[in-house]
Each structure stands twice: as structure tokens, then as C-alpha cells.
Amino acid sequence: MKYIFAILFSALLANNLDAQIYEIGVFAGGSNFIGDVGATKYISPNQLAIGGIAKWNRSPRHSYRLSVIFSELEGIDAKSDDPRRKQRDYQFNNSILEISLGMEFTFFDFDLHSLDTKGTPYLYSGLTLTNYDNYYFSDAGVFTSENKFSWAMGIPIVLGYKTRIADQFILAAEVGARYTFTDEIDGSVPSSEDTERYSFGNTNNNDWYMFSGITLTYTFGRKPCYCNF
Question: Using an 8 Å Cβ cutoff, are 155 and 108 in contact?
């Protein structure tokens, strides 16, 4: 984790520090998976998710945002409400690394230099790049590694609320869905032609996963002039 924070901090310093307000901090929460294996509840965290986050506030209403989050995605058919999945009784666990870059919009002005600034809901979206290992389910129902990994692009859809808790600290709570452009994370669609026959489930629907948690960020930089944005 220390290397991630070093990279994020260096990226911020590469810009003109006395021209804008920056934020850097941590994300901590939980994840859950929505796909062809396991439960289909949308907000049901069952694994730890943790990472780093950085923001460049271009105005009181929008910010550029970069985050790097690690988590495990888990799916257990026995915990599903679908009797067919319960009878099948598959389960998987896959480690992911997500890099996300996009823009955060606040519902109200959030000027960190104003004493009246207390809190506001916000929306975040952009692009994600997710790294995961490739697996498939054998004829015996065993979750089997293909001994390789893949990257998948996706779209984050995040709703949150943030508030200032001290002069230079911002606390936020958020729930975010990630729609991915892959159906391979749970092993329902193998990536190799040699294991293609092990595909199952609805191959027309891609995988989703959720992150629910909090962020704590530290702000720094001189008071900006927003008049040009």
C-alpha cells in the first residue's frame, strides 16, 4: 500500500501545488459480486475492500478523481435465493485490483475555503480498469485456475455523501456499482479456447461488482481561483 500512496502523492506534486486544492486519502469498506455464481443482492458486502484515493478539485462543484482499490470477490451459490443455483452449489473467490479515473460532481457547492461548507451528496463516474485471475469450473464443479490473468474495462456508478470534519479532513460514505465489459470474473466464461466448453450461465450479461465504504482524505494547496473554470 505504501507504494500506491507514494505514486498518488507524486502525481499530485507534479502539478502546480499553489494553484488548486488537492485531496489524498484512503478508502475502506466491503465488496460484493453480482454475476452467474452466488447471490444476486445488489448491496451485500462480504469481503474487505481497501485502497487509496486522490482528487483534484477544479471547482466547488466538480473534481477529477483517481483511486486504486484491492479486494476479493466471492460468490457462493448456497447463499443465493435461486433454487437452481443452490442445487448447483458452485462457489468462487477471485482477487481483483481496480484502477478508476473519472469525475466527481457535487449536488451543492463544496468550497473547502468557505466556513459555510458542511456537506453535500455527490455522484462519481468515469472508467475502471480491473485486473483479475482467469478460472473455470471443471466437470466436477471445481474452481480451477487457468494460470493467467486479464484486464477488463468498466464503468463506475457511485453515489455518496461527504462532509468536512476538520479544517483539512473530508469524510465521505459511498456505494458504487461497477459494470464490467467481461463475463469471466466468476469463471462462467473461460478465457482459453481449450476450456471454452466449460462456459455456463447467461453469456449475454456481463459481471457487476459493488464497493460500499468510506473515504477519509486530507486536503492541501492554496485557495484557488475558480473564475476560469
Answer: no
Q: Which domains does the chain have, with CATH numbers?
A: 2-15+26-228 (2.40.160.20)
Helices (H), the chain: 2-13, 83-88
DSSP class of residue 182 equals -
User: Residue 127 is which amino acid?
Assistant: L
212 contacts: CB under 8 Å, gap ≥ 6 = 29, 30, 31, 32, 43, 45, 174, 175, 176
> Residue 130: helix, strand or coil by DSSP?
strand
Q: Look at the block and give the residue holding cell 482499490.
A: 69
Q: Is the dihedral of CA 207, 213, 217, 223 positive or negative?
A: positive
Q: Please spell the DSSP secondary structure of 74-106, one letter per residue.
A: EEEGGG-S-HHHHHH--EEEEEEEEEEEEEEEE
**The model's pTM:** 0.85
Mean pLDDT for each 10-residue chunk of the chain (229 residues)? 47 44 96 96 95 94 96 96 94 98 95 78 98 96 95 98 92 98 96 90 91 96 56
